[in-house]
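In response to reviewer comment 3 from the previous cycle, which asked for concrete evidence that the modeling workflow produces usable outputs, we include below a single protein chain processed end to end. The sequence was submitted unchanged, and the resulting structure tokens are shown without manual editing.
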Amino acid sequence: QAQLVESGGGLVQAGGSLRLSCAASRSIFSINGMGWHRQAPGKQRELVAHITSGGRTNYADSVKGRFSISRGNAKNTVYLQMSTLKPEDTAAYYCAAYVGVMTYWGNGTLVTVSS
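The workflow returned the following structure tokens.
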């Protein structure tokens, strides 16, 4: 089974909202941060948002003011609230857990934003 399980992707019209969820297995110890990355067709994977175990966040310039990353009360969970979605946000979104120099990845969830 996957160590990171994602949900919430789908098809949405431009201007709409989606909330992505991710839960990491408890078997992953000492997670110091979690994040979301995305990869659009024909493009490189890029960091969208990151949150540390202490709650500090950072975002790609392209999503600042529109996306919000948060951790659940269970620290192995992470969410990405996406608002004012644009067609250029269309991509496969991947959850990540950072453990030292290692990164654990989810299988990705597709987000498609129609014009």
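The chain has a mean pLDDT of 95. We consider this sufficient to address the reviewer's concern, and the full set will be provided in the supplementary archive.
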